[in-house]
Amino acid sequence: RPRALSGIQPTAGSFHLGNYLGAVRQYVALQETHDAFYMVVDLHAITIPQDPQELRANTRVAVAQLLAAGLDPDRCTLFVQSHVPEHAQLAWVMNCLTGFGEASRMTQFKDKSTKQGADRTTVGLFTYPVLQVADILLYQASQVPVGEDQRQHIELTRDLAERFNSRFGHAFTVPSAHIVKETGKIYDLQDPSIKMSKSASTPKGIISLLDEPKVSAKKIKSAVTDLETVVRFDEESKPGVSNLLTIYATLTGVSIAELERKYEGKGYGALKTDLADVMLDWVAPFRARTQEYLDDPETLDNILAKGAEKARTVAAETLALAYDKVGLLPAK
Ligand code: ATP
Ligand code: MG
């Protein structure tokens, strides 16, 4: 079986709808066809200041949501990034292969550091994409299910894997991004020109999956649309409505063309009311399942312990190979 790997941050506690539709849904699908490794990336989370107690709690919340979304620990390897020290170890090697200019071109760093301000931006945030390179290469992953915003980081991973392989001899599988065209970028409900984001969206712009369904329904009803009243998919001139149609179609399996027909002659109000119901039907059982996992932290921690053990076996082998190729003297 080919390998797949991906990670999600435990920041903010709740996942948002973009995380689910763009990434987690694909995790669930790929566990059927791939030897899949999924992790909660706590080391990535601390590139931006976190409260220690909250971070610890939110890491379990993230794991519970992954299980609630359909990840099955018998079908995939589910673990926490910091439980596998090889990630930080390989990241150092890859840091020493990455050009400063190359890292400076990462647009996500530019966006996040601008938001933080120069004084509060850490070196960790700067090298975050290189840690991500190590995350992927350690597992010899060929597919990396992510949202569109991660495309540039996967390109960097490919470049660095090829650079390492040609300089030191073959050590790494060169991975591909697995991005679903329709849902790779879910937009902020208040500003449909930017992606829905844990760190950048305003509360009204983001659907947090663990929020009270009433709150989410209200946010959908006040989503920014346009001055026309025709329900039509057109990302260029109607980004707000198109975003709602994408969400609706993906959650129900009804095609966008059918939805356009269904709402012909009706306004945005009808579309939003129905979508709010669709969301509720999906979110209510998801929240209940998440809570069940959280009520049993021992089971959850056992799943993570097993996951880390499986992950470490693979990661340690790749790290040893990479260390050897680079010329590090093995310890006796
Ligand atoms: P942050 O803004 O702090 O980076 P985030 O919202 O991007 O947070 P992550 O944990 O960084 O959340 O991302 C987890 C996964 O979700 C990644 O694969 C990412 O590409 C995907 N993703 C994030 N936002 C969206 C979105 N709006 N649409 C589709 N996929 C998304
Ligand atoms: Mg992100």
Summarize the structure.
The chain has 332 residues and is mostly helical. It has helices spanning 17-30, 42-45, 52-69, 86-95, 100-104, 107-116, 123-138, 151-168, 213-221, 239-252, 256-262, 268-294, 297-326; strands at 3-8, 35-40, 76-80, 143-145, 176-178.
Query: How many strands in all?
Result: 5
Q: Which small-molecule ligands are present, each listed once?
A: adenosine-5'-triphosphate, magnesium ion
Q: What is the end-to-end distance?
A: 34 Å
What is the H/E order? EHEHHEHHHHEHEHHHHH
Gyration radius, in Å: 21 Å
Helix content: 40-55%
> Low-confidence spans: pLDDT under 50, at least 5 residues?
none
β-strand percent reads 5-15%
Give the structural class: mainly alpha
Protein name: Tryptophan--tRNA ligase
Binding site for L-tryptophan: 135
Binding site for ATP: 9-11, 18-19, 147-149, 186, 195-199
Subcellular location: Cytoplasm
Structural description of this entry:
L-tryptophan binds at residue 135. This is Tryptophan--tRNA ligase. Pfam families: tRNA-synt_1b. One of its GO terms (biological process) is tryptophanyl-tRNA aminoacylation. Its main location: cytoplasm. By secondary structure, this protein is mostly helical. Helices cover 55% and strands 7% of the residues. It has helices at residues 17-30, 42-45, 52-69, 86-95, 100-104, 107-116, 123-138, 151-168, 213-221, 239-252, 256-262, 268-294, 297-326; strands at residues 3-8, 35-40, 76-80, 143-145, 176-178. The strands form two sheets. A three-stranded parallel sheet has the order 1-2-3. The protein has a two-stranded parallel sheet with strand order 4-5. Helix 4 (86-95) packs parallel to helix 13 (297-326) and helix 10 packs across helix 12. The protein is globular. The mean pLDDT is 96. Residues 8-9, 11, 18-19, 22-23, 146-147, 149-150, 184-186, 195-200 line the site of adenosine-5'-triphosphate (ATP).
